[in-house]
Design goal:
Elements lengths: L2 H18 L1 H13 L1 H12 L8 H21 L12 H25 L3 E6 L10 H27 L1 H15 L8 H21 L3 H17 L14 E5 L3 H4 L9 H20 L3
Antiparallel strand pairs: 1-2
Helix pairs in contact: 2-4, 2-6, 3-4, 4-6, 5-9, 5-11, 6-7, 6-8, 6-9, 7-8, 8-11
Length: 282
């Protein structure tokens, strides 16, 4: 190697070491993956009238966010996109949908037994029930790519699974702190939910089940049980019901995700998936 080549290699070394640092890679991954979401929303609002902005901006943002994440994996990390591998995708997605739906139904069933949830009837089934799916898909996809695909995965490579679970749980909970009605119980439930999702990723090493369970959870809370989702205003869904009683049970303004019942259900689910991940040697 001649002197010029040696000098070039020495100049490149600091930048290469910087890019290899887990924190730097995490920040780059988060920025690249999330940036298409606000940019798409801002541009669509500026260029298209509101009546014509139904579902497609959210779906477009989801696609662009996925492509940005793919770019990060291929060009920055220089590896294959194994977390979106096609093998087992359908099965894991169905399992995730069943898991999310089952957990929400368990929460509301327990709340009903405790007298904190009263079912009044059903609303008319229309296509409007499917309309929120675009936004919920965007949320589930981007949050799982960010918190499991970037934060947890890169932390796990650097500091191991146990500390990565803690780091991703703290970051996931902190991201929801600005939401209305957040409480200590809600923060704890969000942290445990993050632990469960990390354990699912540890078992499958793919994001399909994480995304599907996240989607089903939000959809069933908001569109099936017509309840508040993470502090966002409740809308009329399939079932007409009322939450009443202690805030510890109902979750207050944050919704059932701030309920001790949800915390207990999620703790049981997280423990089960963590046990499975440890058995598999993850």
């Amino acid at each position: 190697m001649n002197e010029a080549s040696t000098m070039s290699a020495n100049k490149a070394a600091p930048s290469s070491r910087l890019m290899a640092h887990p924190f730097v890679r995490s920040v780059i991954g988060i920025v690249l993956t999330f940036a298409p979401v606000p940019l798409t929303m801002i541009l669509s609002s500026a260029l298209v009238d509101k009546p014509y902005r139904i579902a497609w901006p959210q779906l477009l943002a989801a696609v662009l966010s996925f492509l940005a994440y793919r770019f990060f994996v291929h060009r920055i990390e220089k590896r294959a996109l194994t977390e979106f591998g096609a093998q087992g995708a359908a099965r894991e997605s169905l399992l995730g949908l069943g898991l999310g739906a089952g957990l929400v139904c368990a929460v509301f069933a327990l709340l009903g037994l405790l007298g904190a949830y009263h079912l009044d009837g059903m609303n008319t089934v229309t296509l409007l029930l499917a309309l929120p799916l675009a936004e919920l898909m965007l949320v589930a996809l981007t949050e799982e790519m960010l918190f499991r695909g970037v934060v947890f995965r890169i932390s796990e490579q650097s500091i191991g699974s146990r500390w990565a679970i803690i780091v991703s749980a703290v970051v996931f909970s902190a991201a929801h702190l600005p939401n209305d009605g957040v409480s200590p119980v809600a923060v704890a439930a969000l942290a445990v939910y993050s632990v469960m999702q990390a354990a699912i990723y540890m078992r499958t090493r793919r994001l399909w089940m994480c995304i599907a369970s996240h989607l089903a959870w939000n959809y069933f809370v908001g569109q099936i049980f017509s309840a508040t989702v993470s502090g966002h205003q409740a809308e009329a869904g399939l079932l007409r019901g009322e939450l009443s009683g202690s805030i510890l049970l109902t979750g207050g303004a944050f919704g059932v995700e701030g309920s001790v019942v949800t915390l207990v259900v999620l703790c049981a689910a997280a423990a089960w998936f963590l046990r499975g991940a440890l058995k598999r040697g993850s």
